[in-house]
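Before we proceed, please read the two lines closing this message. Report back on whether the structure tokens fit the sequence:
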Amino acid sequence: MFQTSKSTSSRSTHYSYTSIIISDLEIILKANDAAAVTEALEGGTKIYLYNKKIGDKGTKALATALEYNNTITAINLENNKIGDEGTKALATMFGSNNTITKIDLRDNAIGDEGAKALATALESNDTIAYINLRSNNIGDEGTKALATALQSNNTITDIDLGGNNIGDEGTKALATALGSNDTITDINLSGNDIGDEGTKALATALESNCTITIGLLMQQ
């Protein structure tokens, strides 16, 4: 969880980072005012928008503002009703942004199409180290795309895919990627639909990759 400190400065036409993140950013995001978002984020390093329900519209405004932002390094967008359209906007942003290292998108509605868009971005992105996609209705097709991205990505060290709809086919694709990826140290797959075939594939991957920890048990 990313935290910000409260600001005691008064409001003006130029919003300070701490005050805008805590109070008004969600409002201008919902208004889809990318220019105002850009100004609001000036000088900030972290965005914490847990459970603000900004949706795809607000996410698109945020993505536009972040495209060439060079100060934000961490984003928490947990539980914001973000679907595949908002996720695609974020994926496009990741193609040009080179400062964001952590992104938390858990408890949204990304789905397979959103996961595919993220996967395409992650193939070339070289700054993101942590990505949380827990509980996003991602199935085998989206997982296969992410697995393909992980075969070439060499910056992600921690990825959470728990609580999705990943079955054996998606798991086997991930296992293939993990067999050659020597960057990832932690991957959470708990709360999915992984059967014997998927589990065996992961076990085989671990034989050649001794640096990774795979979580398969439900977290409390």
Notes: The longest strand covers residues 46-48. Residues 56-215 form a domain with the Leucine-rich repeat, LRR (right-handed beta-alpha superhelix) fold (CATH 3.80.10.10). Residues 17-30 form the longest helix (14 residues). The radius of gyration is 18 Å.
